[in-house]
Amino acid sequence: MYWFSRDSFRDFAVAANDGIIGAAGVLQGFAGAGATSRTLLVASISAMVAASVAGFGAKYAELAAARDAERALIVDARKDLAEGPEDDLVDLAGHFEELGAPEPLALEVAERMIEHDGLAATLKTAHGIDEPTPGWFPLAGALWNAFSVAVGSALPLAVLLLYPRAIESWAVVVAVILSLIVTSFIIAAAARASIWRALRRTLLIGIATMTLSYLAGVLIF
């Protein structure tokens, strides 16, 4: 199930990264412009809300479009089977032959799969669809993404609330770097990728975002 899978933890960490970097960039930009603690607080809250809403909308559009495309594939596959399973039978047999099965065995397996559940067999082998995406998934996935972004965005806000002079003392920068290290480890572990590569990439983007945002604020004012 998605919610207890590596993918869910990876998606959470990636979205949280976006929230952390985005909110930190906004704060550093305002700090570079000499904003007061009150202004920084308003900017931080605005960044968290805007990023969460944008994250929800973008993820919902992505997942809904993917589900629409999947539904179209299912409709086409069902139509093809209704008109005649011969083409699907040939495709299935060819798939098993590519995997190394002898032609007679591949044909026999394909015939049995078509007889048992031709639609499921076609979707699985031709499109990699184990089961159709449920209708609630785009909304749930979008909410999960918005929550993840909000959690990440809340970190700079929390530092600012606990210590209003955080920008001057670089506490936000330190907190952001430590948080990005944690999320990098989560992403790398979920993707079974190189931890150091993920760490280097994430920290580079985060530090560059904060630095450029701060310089932009200084140059503007």
From TrEMBL:
Listed GO cellular component terms? Answer: endomembrane system
Q: Tell me the domain of life.
A: Bacteria
**One Pfam short name:** VIT1
Q: Where are the transmembrane segments?
A: 12-34, 40-61, 142-163, 169-191, 203-220
Subcellular location as annotated: Endomembrane system
Its recorded name reads VIT family protein
- UniProt key word Transmembrane helix: yes
* Membrane protein topology class: Multi-pass membrane protein
One of the entry's Gene Ontology molecular-function terms is:
manganese ion transmembrane transporter activity
Q: Does the keyword Hydrolase apply?
A: no
Keywords (A to Z) from UniProt? Membrane, Transmembrane, Transmembrane helix
Q: What species does this protein belong to? A: Agromyces protaetiae
Q: Which GO terms describe its biological process?
A: intracellular manganese ion homeostasis
